[in-house]
Structure formats: C-alpha cells, structure tokens
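Sequence in, structure out.
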Amino acid sequence: MLLAGYLAVMWSIAAYPALLSQQFAATEKTKADAAIILGASVWKDKPSPVFVERINYGIQLYQSGQVTHLIFTGGLSKGDTLSEAAAARQYAIAAGVPASQILIEEVSKNTYQNLQQACKLMQVNQFKSSMVVSDPLHMKRAMSMAQDLHLHATSAATPTSLYVGWSAKGQFLLYESLFYVKYKLLGEAENSCMSKKT
C-alpha cells in the first residue's frame, strides 16, 4: 500500500506540468504583477546552469510584458560570497532588466521559505498576483506551498530544463516525491502569508 501510494505521488508530480498546460491553454496571455523565481545553487558567485534556466524564463516573462517585476529568492549558502537572489539580480540586470523592476530576498533556505519571503515582498509592494517560476518537476510541490500561503499564483514551469535523460529526471523525481510527501505530512510552522481575501 505504501509503495503504491508513493508511486501515485511520483506519477502526479511527473504529470503535473502536462495537466497544467491543458488547464491553462493560453498561458502566454497570463499576466501578473511579478514572477517569483525560486532559488537554486550558485557556483562561484554565478547562477548554476539549473538556476540560469529559471532566471532566463523569468526574464522572458518580463520582456514579453506578462509580469512587471521579478522577485528573485534565495539566501547565502556556506562557502559562497553572494546569495542566490543577488547572483540572479546581477544576471538579470546584465541581460537588460532595469534594477528598479527587480526585488530580492536573501534569507530563505528552501522552497517554502522562498515563497514565504516573496509573499512578504508582494505585501510590501502591494502586488496582488504572481507567476511562480521553477523546473517542471518542482512545480507541484511549489504550487502546493503557494496555495497554503494563500498566494494568488499561477504556475510558470520553465519550458526547458537541464534535468535531461532518464537518470537525471528519475533522480529529481525521487527527490521531489520524498520532499512532497514530507511537506504534506509535516507541513510548516507557519502556513499563511497573505490573507485568503488577498
């Protein structure tokens, strides 16, 4: 029973991006106040290749007029001198995004905290809607957390990912399934940011 349940979770995570693409057939027409780009590792003060994929998609959403601001998330990891968010900000500015349209938070250490801190920035700036940007297999867990935080958010899975091949995708899927189950069983100490009416 446990194995069957776990396999069902894995299937739901793998199928989630496809289901979303059917539900939001006109995703390119979706607009929001900000794109929340979930953090990923930094290599020598530069965004890692996986992070670059997320940042590039956030930039694309900004340049196409779907969002007016970018919110980069992610704190400082041990051994780094630049936070994930700061590295992403530098990359986006170099790509032509005005600094005035970029917000960052540099304290979060995981996906839930990424969204929680981004939510606080949305409150301060009176943003009402967002698009959450991450890898396709990460979206089910991220959107579940966004819902628990009462974020008015739309999924914006990256159209490309560096997780290619059965081995890489399989490992990422196993990781995501474990952490999704853990989140659903244990939750977080705080489970709201914006009010349900926001």
